[in-house]
Each structure stands twice: as C-alpha cells, then as structure tokens.
Amino acid sequence: MTQKLSNTPARELDKFIEDHLLPDTIFRTEVKAAINTICAFLKERCFRGAAHPVRVSKVVKGGSSGKGTALKGRSDADLVVFLNNLSSFEEQLKKRGKFIREIREQLYALQCEGCIRVKFEVQRSCLPNPRALGFTLSSPPPPHPRLQQEVQFDVLPAYDVLGHVSTDRKPDPQIYRSLIIECTSLRKEGEFSTCFTELQRNFLKDRPPKLKSLIRLVKHWYQLCKEKPKKRKKRKKPLPPQYALELLTVYAWERGSGNTEFNTAQGFRTVLELVTKYRQLRIYWTKYYDFQDQYISSYLLSQLRRTRPVILDPADPTGNVAGSNSEGWRQLAEEAAAWLQYPCFKNWDGSLVRSWDVPTEVPVPQ
Fold it and tell me: At 244, is the secondary structure helix, strand, or coil?
C-alpha cells in the first residue's frame, strides 16, 4: 500500500483513511463482544481454583483498541489485569510469571468452551518470567465474505497502584514518588507503564475522531517504513517505538491546530517534519504529573536534560518513549525527508502543502 499512500493527492487523504485504514465495523463489534467475555472471565473466574487467593480488582483494555486508534486488518491491544495481591512495583516484577502461567491455563479452558465467536488462539512463551501472555482474535479466513482480520492481544498482570481513576484530578503525587524511587533503585525506568494504562488510554480516548484518523495515518506510514528493510533484506536497527509517533502526532495537533476539523495533509506533514528534527525534540505533558512536588520536579528536570529526542510518556514520567536508539531515529528521519516530496503532500496546483508552525521543544520551568 506504499504506492497507494504516497501517490494519493493531499486532498484525498481523508478518503484514503476511510477506505483503507478504518477497522471493519462488523469485525470490531465481534472483537468487542469477545473481549467483554474475556474481561469478565479474567475478573470473575480466572483465579477461582488457584492454590493461592488472588483477587482481580479490574481489567483495563489498552493499546490501539482501547484508545480508539486501531488500524484495519491487524491491530493490537493490551488487557491489563490489576491484582490486589501485588503491593509494590518490585513485587509485580517478581511474581508476574507465576500469574501469567495461571492465566494461560485458564484461558486455554475458556478457549475449549467455544463461547467466543471469532477465532481465539493463546500463544505459548518459553521465557521463565514473561512480561505478558499473548493471544490473537481473528475473523474467519477467506473465502469468508469479510477480509481476514486479526487483533493481537497481550495480557499483563499489574500492581493496582492507582485504584479508582478520577478524570477530573491528578493522581496523588505519592504514587509517582514511589514509582520513581522503585524504578531508579531497580534500574527499570519505564518498566511499569502498564500500571498507568488507564491514564494512557484516557489521554487519547476522548480526542476528536479526526485526530485519531491522523494517528492511524501516521501509524500506517510507520508500518510501511518498518516493512521496507524486510523487502531489501538488509539488517538494520529497529525503528523507534510506534507509541512515540502517536504522542508526536498528538503534540503536533495540540500545538499546530487544536481544532476538531483540520487539514489532514498539513497534520501529516507536520509530524514528518518533526521526525526529521528528532535531535531537537523535548516533549512532555503535565496532565497527570507536574513540577509542584519537589521530588517529582527534580526527577522530571533530570529526565528532560537527557540526550534528545525526549518524549515522556504523559502517564509515566520514568518512560522516555523516544528511547535511546539514535540510529533508528536517523533511519526514520531519512524516510520522512523522502516522503515530504511525495504527491500526498502536494496541492492540486503542484505546490507543497504547508505544515503547522510547531516548536520542537516544550519549555522547562527555571
């Protein structure tokens, strides 16, 4: 689909998204029903026969399915199982393998019951202490009238540090102080972002539909860039995480437009231009944590002084989702620079679409 996107005129990008990137409605409805069944199972039945008493406080759907930015064909989602038995981030790290083995056995049993309409397949892991349990839900294969589609899920046990999540106030700063202390002592910064899945999801969930469509377009472009080395059969460094591109898209829209309706080509061009300026990126948000608490403020300032690019997870200050892979960013920036000359960024008269005026960095308090 590279040629399809690169040769799509700027004025037709919205139609391209509608025709090629929005998930199939019927399959999405079936997946939603299956996920509701699995969530209810995990919450009510999963640990019923376990030797040790385990209580699931809640199951939260994250990933692109939870945020409403899933792509047609293949998508991903996280089912985070919050356990009352875990009392610290370190305990989550030590005990997750045991809980995942129990969940796997129970999901096998659910699979055998045959109460889920779409194809449901649990994956095995050879790791002694795996971070997640993977399974897939897929539509019936061709010649079924609908195209084959698949959603890949990860089930992740997590420490319920947030408890009830409020939409109108920040979490208690003590939560982030504990996170920072444990992450730095364990040298596991960003490891516990699953505990903040609800905040990550809420950060994107209620955004305008057109912004979510722009995120889909950027993700599709990212996937095309990811597949290109495979076609050339060259070994290259992995690209930066896709989540970094999602957050970069939100940032570009917030600073460049902020409107529910906007020019998709302008937004797309702005994101790719920011990718080419990756060495200058310093992006963060203060929706869930800020500089009011002295300990958190000191840590945040140290994070923001790191070698760029810096894109802090809006829900987890220990997670620089841009990573430290400068070679991966360089490869992505080269792709972005080439794409900026393609027809998808040209107006009907052949002139280039103008990007939004977006700074590469968010100011830091003095």
Answer: helix
